[in-house]
Amino acid sequence: MQTILEKLNIKSVNFGTSTGLQAWSSGEELLDSFSPVDNQLIAQVTKTTFQDYQQVVEKANDAFKTWGNIPAPRRGEIVRQMGMAFREYKAELGKLVSYEMGKSLQEGLGEVQEIIDICDFAVGLSRQLYGLTMHSERPEHRMYEQYHPLGIVGIISAFNFPVAVWSWNAMIAWVCGDVCIWKPSEKTPLTAIACQHIITSVLKENNIPEGVSNIITGDYQVGEWLSSDTRVPLISATGSTRMGKIVGATVAARMGKSLLELGGNNAIIITENADLNIAIPAVVFGAVGTAGQRCTSTRRLIIHESIYESVKERLIKAYQQLRIGNPLDENNHVGPLIDSKAVEAYNAAVEAVHQEGGKMLVDAEVLLGDGYESGCYVKPCIAEVKPDFRIVKHETFAPILYLMSYSTIEEAIDIQNDVPQGLSSSIFTLNMREAEMFLSVNGSDCGIANVNIGTSGAEIGGAFGGEKETGGGRESGSDAWKAYMRRQTNTINYGKQLPLAQGIKFNL
């Protein structure tokens, strides 16, 4: 990993104040970053103290007074330069993402490309922060709506997409005129610090206050400081439903705003009218990509009874071809889970399948020995289950695929919807009626509903998010930018009279 560290002039293993980034961490407690690839210690990051946190918020508040008053197209130009900087560092940062998080090199590079893409989107958006005009019922009055930045946006990101999801929030917030405080996952702090160095260099070149982009590091306690702070009007949090419920309640208690992107328990329906030549690859990629650690990973496969055995056989054959190993080796399909706790969750889910009467079609296994020394490598597995199994309704962040059958399309949609989560969903069919039914008001209840593509992956142009215990938030494209701004209704009286509501008159 020395390449990107050297390019970014990060010379110390202890990434505290010695980086010259800013005095954001004066404490002595360290946060270790281990790679799940080989269990090697990558870096020790100094944890943010409460005193440090207070200084960061004050600096962000001061920076907002400048940044929020810069014209939006000018802010867009600076974000454009950020995108160019990430193009320069794409290869090195993508490799670091792969090594620190454990996803394949192709996925690591793809994650950096998402940063670049959202920068491009944000640049165009900077000239399209449209309000509305409307006719007033009062003569010689004009009414319109406009949007203003909120101020500080707190971003709490998860380990599985250590940089991309941060950028979905940060780039949009910046063109809207907000400043950001980023609390990355304690499991992937180094990629965040690398991004912060890149961003800081662009801000410095444009004489922009460094408090526009801030980073705080540590465990859940640091996130609690951010969530409970009345000076931070919006918290965008990505992670588990358990975490999101805590964050949402904390922010709501102070009448703040929250944008929650939480758990997913995503299903693909394969009908008897499906093209299996595209369905099977979509299922495999959705189930094993990022070792099943995407919020949009395919976890449930609902197959029409007439083709159930055929699909099952093809999947078993496909899983036999998967190569598991070092994600930096582009010949491998599946890398490690993030840590030993994730492996424990994988084992517990498999045990639950057995206890509830399920059957393993492709056996689960924790891989050990040469090349698997970290103990975080597991075999993607397939289980034959019933839709009402408790474990099937629970999201396990691991490559476990649950197979079940159905007889009617209505039954399939009911099975699809009968889980607490509502993020991503998909149907494979060449039948227009089935496709339209799936997309109708009585169809999928998820925030994302696809036809003839899988559940994982999302284009930055569309709003990303889900319903139910997924949190209801929307980020990235479409009109998701409105979450980062406050709406204001304005009325201008350009006449010589003051008409009052309901025709009331004062003889003054």
Automatic annotation (TrEMBL):
Signal peptide residue numbers: none
Sorted UniProt keywords: NAD, Oxidoreductase
EC annotation from Swiss-Prot or TrEMBL: 1.2.1.3
Protein name, UniProt field: aldehyde dehydrogenase (NAD(+))
Spans through the membrane: none
Residue intervals of the Aldehyde dehydrogenase domain: 28-489
SUPFAM superfamilies hit by this protein: ALDH-like (SSF53720)
Record-linked InterPro entries: Ald_DH/histidinol_DH, Ald_DH_C, Ald_DH_CS_GLU, Ald_DH_N, Aldehyde_DH_dom, ALDH7A1-like
Keyword Thylakoid: no
